[in-house]
Amino acid sequence: MNAIIDFLQPYYQHIRFVHLTAVMVWVWSTSVAYAYYLLPVFKAWRRNPDDQQIIELRNWVMERFDHGVIYEHIAFPIVIIAGIMLYIVGGHSTAENWLLLKLAIVIGVFIPIEITDYYLSHFGGNKHKLRKAGSAQDYERGIQLHWWFFLITTAVVMLGGTAVIFLAVVKPF
Ligand code: HEM
Question: So what's the pLDDT on residue 65?
Answer without folding.
Answer: 98
